Amino acid sequence: MGRSDSHPTRLAGTAIHGGLGIGRVLHHQPRIVIRRVVAEDVGEERIRLDRALERMHSSIDRLLSTDALSEVGEHREVLETYVLLARDKGWINRMREAIDSGLTAEAAIQKVRDDTRARMASITDAYLRERLADLEDIALRLLQTLASDGENAGTEAYAPEGDWVLVARSMGPAELLDYDPSRLKGLALEEGSATAHVAIVARALDIPVIGRVAGLLGEAEPGDTMIVDADHGQVLLRPRSDALAQFAAAQGARAETRARYDAIRDLPAETLDGVRVSLNLNAGLLVDMSQLERTGADGIGLYRTEIPFLVRREYPDVDAQTQLYARILESAGGRPVTFRTLDAGGDKRLPSFAHDIEDNPALGWRALRIGLDHPSLLRQQLRALFRASAGLTLRVMFPMVATVDEFREARQMVELERRRAEANGAILPATVEVGAMIEVPSILWDLDRLAAEADFLSVGSNDLFQFLYAADRDSPRLARRYDPLTSPFLTVLKQIATTGTRHGCRVTLCGELAGRPVEALILVALGYRNLSMNAASIGVIKETLRSRQISNLDKFIEFLIEKNAADIRNRVTTFLRDHP
Prior knowledge:
Distance between the termini: 52 Å
Number of helices: 21
Strand order of the largest sheet: 1-10-9-3-6-7-8-2
Radius of gyration: 26 Å
Largest sheet: 8 strands, mixed
Helix content: 40-55%
Strand content: 15-25%
């Protein structure tokens, strides 16, 4: 059932969960054909709707009880929120009212679905858009339940034999569970992001996912062969034999590479001349914690605490936060975990909190600024962290610190919560370390005072770079305009590392730079001994460090910076090639 011309096509997208997969295209949403719109018996239609709702609720409950999703984690929170939406009385009552107006059950569902889509069409908020995707998913599931009950509606679907690659515009989280995981080899979406609910569930099932693939539904015909290359952000439709051979070779190379990384998993990230580097993970989901053991990472250098806030309707209370942070620390198995306090605002709006529309949200009311303006929110989070860290080490850092006074005010809240816990007779953390993220350029001119007061500093290289160059890192037109391996940015990074050393203040870098081999070597040459990155980068960075000396490279980097050299990237690459 593929295209008659069978021409191969490559489509670019955004990698959401890495991996390689191949299978036949299976479109997620079969078209629902409603054959009867006007109800002959309104009472009977209400009964049909109620029966379908009961069957749908039961099927969702069964899906959520699968062994693959039994572990606690954000995917459970996402799916439990989905269940609440499916049982939402307001949504159900609107469908019943539509039936009372003379529509069949199917037409009533479709009407409410269309009305909701029209109301939310202009909304750009990521969380609310995700709610719309969930509601679309639930409405389709209900229509399919009715379609299996009678003759008023039917589905037009095609399920190819063998392995599948699922294709959709967007998906709700539970729909992924309808497919046999042993046959599902990849997921490709026209929309979708790393925080989309279906992406969170796909990660829990370890399915390669690529999103934002423009034109996907128009190009991918049911039954077409598709390769999902989520490592490089692309899909290959109807690949030729040479592409299939390359895919097989890539799968083999991937297995060999993983075997090499597994062999050094428990060895230190130490250069040939004895420079020891701590490699840590960036995480934001409880399911990410399993990567600690698999990769051999030393700990969690950055735990983004905002994701559980983004997937809940209500702001999680202290007890809910305490339970989550305690599970994270337990999953770490004694390895250090650095919690970043709530980094909401900007493009991450909390559904439980009123956010004003801002012309420039990345530079607006977000992160620590919200916490300082609403101290009860920040103190609740700190209180939960204190409770979860009883008898352990608590490492907490504040994002978007622009002035030393902001850091002092935030640190004072930490002290207030410590005194509160002590007064209540609670078990305190064994030690408390408080740090600041370096991502706002203004703090660069006050680094000495900050380093003298902070227990550690963490460079958020992604934001620091985009703010220094006034270049949106998500802009396709600017993505390749500025290279971080230039004298100005390397000078800034060197300044931060040197200042931290001078004050005995540990400095970590958590950003994309840490996960790239050439950049990681340069960072170590600049004096960084703690790097935090995504799980996929741990193996390659450890292997790179263990095969190199730093003693010559650091002098070469210093020379290039002093001379304000051009084309530092190529010059360093040549140096590394000449000094294997």
